[in-house]
Design goal:
Helix content is 74%, strand content 0%. Helix 19 (305-318) runs antiparallel to helix 20 (322-335). It has helices spanning 5-8, 13-24, 33-43, 47-59, 64-77, 81-93, 101-116, 120-133, 138-150, 154-167, 172-184, 188-199, 206-215, 219-228, 236-248, 252-265, 270-282, 286-297, 305-318, 322-335, 340-349. The longest helix has 16 residues, at 101-116. It has 352 residues and is mainly alpha-helical.
Length: 352
């Protein structure tokens, strides 16, 4: 088993929306030095340092709502979702009763952390609280739908997904996110209806249409649209999708060359390093794959590291270095103890 960061780590719209307010939410609030340094460390993915700054902020009596919020976001970056849930709730409890963008932003983070901690019921309830105050919030409807799918409430999930797209009609990425959620829940036929609806959008560019064709399995059409949108090849997201399309068409060598060309001419990108490594493993070049995964890991830590770390272990297995793979898997499971596939792989490794 290998993992593509593009699919294994699912994009969650509220997280990206919340990221917009990561630092701007601090403006005009009189935020003090340690909290500000903590948020800066988060933006640089230095989560351990961020925790230290927020600890110092608490000791100095700085704004408790900002301190707990920042600490919760840092724990999310470290994939410690249980701690994140606890301190994000503490942040909301410090609110003075006036609900603004900062509090909604914190609530989004909380809903995501609850979902990823294995508590979709709590995530659903948090989203409901947001929707009760912001009746036309597509991101909250999307995340609540995702939680309802996890709870087995398929009809409610579809209803919320429909509410999300009715409020954000012209965003094809939202339709794709919904499709992926429904495929993961075993509802691929229902999910494909959202892709078909997205294809009917009038305000859609070649890149967006190419992605839609990709998910519909129409890879030649996807390639043509993505090539038309390619430009100078400096957009890592476009390069990633174009490469994956060539992979789906069976031309893994050309896909790998696209990834390598991008990495030669631009700053490193976690997703592209991961995808390059997967291509190299598919062609049997496990040494090269291992180097690609390790270069990706050096780009800075966040949740995308999970797929890189797992694929790194798989590469060591293919190289018959089972001792190294076992040690890495033990460390991996400390960070991701609920990964059932990794647990099964660990049992296999202990027999080698």
């Amino acid at each position: 088993m290998i993992r593509s960061g593009l699919f294994y780590i699912k994009k969650t719209l509220p997280v990206f929306f919340a990221g917009i307010l990561l630092l701007t939410g601090c403006e005009g609030t009189g935020i003090k030095e340690n909290n500000l340094l903590g948020y800066q460390a988060i933006s640089e993915r230095e989560y351990d340092a961020a925790i230290q700054f927020f600890d110092a902020a608490e000791a100095a009596g700085e704004d408790a709502e900002q301190t707990f919020r920042g600490r919760g976001i840092a724990y999310m970056g470290m994939a410690d979702y249980d701690k994140a849930v606890s301190v994000l709730r503490d942040s909301l409890s410090e609110c003075d009763g006036r609900i603004g963008d900062l509090e909604f932003d914190t609530a989004y983070y909380l809903a995501v952390a609850e979902f990823r901690s294995g508590d979709p019921g709590a995530s659903r309830d948090t989203c409901t609280s947001i929707i009760n105050l912001r009746h036309e919030d597509p991101d909250a409807y999307f995340l609540r739908g995702k939680a309802e799918l996890a709870l087995g409430d398929d009809d409610l999930a579809v209803k919320d997904f429909n509410s999300a797209v009715s409020l954000k009609k012209d965003d094809p990425d939202l339709y794709i996110d919904i499709y992926e959620c429904m495929v993961n829940a075993g509802l691929s036929e229902e999910g494909s209806n959202f892709l078909k609806s997205a294809m009917e959008l009038t305000k859609i560019n070649d890149f967006q249409k190419g992605k839609l064709y990709y998910f519909m399995g129409e890879y030649e059409e996807a390639r043509d649209k993505l090539e038309a949108a390619r430009g100078d090849g400096s957009d890592p997201v476009l390069v990633l999708w174009l490469g994956k399309t060539y992979e789906a068409l069976g031309d893994k060598s050309y896909a790998a060359s696209l990834y390598k060309t991008y990495l030669e001419d631009n700053q490193g990108n976690v997703d592209i390093y991961n995808q390059l490594g997967l291509c190299e493993m598919d062609t049997g070049d496990y040494e090269a794959a291992l180097q690609s995964f390790e270069k990706g890991l050096k780009q800075g830590g966040d949740e995308k590291n999970q797929s890189l770390l797992f694929n790194q272990i798989v590469a060591y297995e293919h190289l018959a270095d089972f001792k190294k793979a076992t040690v890495l898997m033990e460390n991996y499971l400390k960070s991701y103890p609920d990964d059932e596939a990794a647990q099964r792989e660990y049992k296999f490794l202990k027999t080698r």
